Amino acid sequence: MYSCRQASRILSDALERRLTPMEWLNLRLHLTICGMCRSYAHNVRILEDVLVRLRQQVDGNGTQQLSVPDRELILRNLEAITGHASGEPPEA
Predict the structure, then answer these.
(1) Is the pLDDT assigned to residue 86 strictly greater than 80?
(2) Can you spell out the DSSP letters for 42-72?
(3) Which residues contact 29 (CB under 8 A, 6 or more apart)?
(4) Are residues 31 and 38 in contact, defined by beta-carbon separation less than 8 angstroms?
């Protein structure tokens, strides 16, 4: 079974390549017991979905524009993770 560091690396690798059966099994075992990594995996999937949609949205100048719903989705997830909508901790 993977450590959190290994699991996060494999989750990132899975964005670019197909995991081997052993990688997939070890990752599933780790995610079964680790809530933090399950949350990370969920956020990776959300960001991947948003990036796929972003690639599909191009304005007349050839510039990619993030839609309002996608922007709001990212902000909600950042707020859930950090407690602050910008993704940065609130200033003291």
Answers:
(1) no
(2) HHHHHHHHHHHHHHH-B-TTS-B---HHHHH
(3) 1, 2
(4) yes
